[in-house]
Amino acid sequence: RVFSGLVHVKNPHLDSMEEDVLYHLDLGTKTHNLPAMFGDVKFVCVGGSPNRMRAFAQFMHKELGLAGDGKDLADICAGTDRYAMYRAGPVLSISHGMGIPSISIMLHELIKLLHHAKCRDVTIIRIGTSGGLGVEAGSVVITDMAVDSSFQPRFEQVVLDDVVVRSTELDRDLVEELLTCSKEIPDLPTLIGHTMCTYDFYEGQGRLDGALCSFSSEKKLEYLKRAYDAGVRNIEMESTAFAALCRLCGLRGESPPAVSASSCAPQPCPGLGAGFARE
């Protein structure tokens, strides 16, 4: 990992391109002055829902005491319906959709945007909802390790016909900073734990209410118990890709999603109180 403060891209082919078009963000190096637009960005917050990220940008606009009421914040990606992007001072707020494929596309283009804009010392945080294991609904789980469905800290990406395995280690200092900040907010139960990332919302997360279900409720509960014993405290569908890309490109990254209660678990696991979030 590189600690120079710059955002790094690991693609030698970009240097020979006359123009880099960020298709899904409706931005480009020839059509936009990216350093002028984004060069002073210090924080990027990403989450699944466009409406949620607009509301977050408006909240940050108010918290930072910026001019105006923030209600008329413009969607920087208005030329596309794939993602939404808003800015409040040094904070960029971007939606990423649901699942690894969607967040991966957004992160590739976001990282290139920050690189072209010559941003330094950027911190990126994923916010949103998740399903909890053994934690109170409404809690915030600060991820110390993103793990796959086998509880391993890795992100497996098929590149051509090779399986590339990448580390999902997150910034430990940032984890502790967020935990310290949480203590200043009353009635916000916060804890540090592993976040499990799955490729699917239904079978992949052990739900019994999908169109397909190939396991018994007993098998589901046994799996969730093993996940809990392995340190997993919440489940979502983006964290391993998020952690791997941030680490490789020199970004301080963290994923502290909130836990939502759910009616999706008809037989809660004794002692776990498993909740699963609907974005």
From TrEMBL:
EC number per UniProt: 2.4.2.3
Domain Nucleoside phosphorylase: 42-252
Pfam hit, one: PNP_UDP_1
Metabolic or biological pathway: Pyrimidine metabolism; UMP biosynthesis via salvage pathway; uracil from uridine (phosphorylase route): step 1/1
Positions that bind phosphate: 82, 126-129
PROSITE patterns tied to this protein: PNP_UDP_1
BP term (GO), one: UMP salvage
SUPFAM superfamilies assigned to the protein according to its UniProt record, in alphabetical order: Purine and uridine phosphorylases
Gene Ontology terms, MF aspect: uridine phosphorylase activity
The protein's role, per its UniProt record: Catalyzes the reversible phosphorylytic cleavage of uridine to uracil and ribose-1-phosphate which can then be utilized as carbon and energy sources or in the rescue of pyrimidine bases for nucleotide synthesis. Shows broad substrate specificity and can also accept deoxyuridine and other analogous compounds.
Family statement: Belongs to the PNP/UDP phosphorylase family.
Protein name: Uridine phosphorylase
Organism this protein belongs to: Athene cunicularia (Burrowing owl)
Gene name linked to the record: UPP2
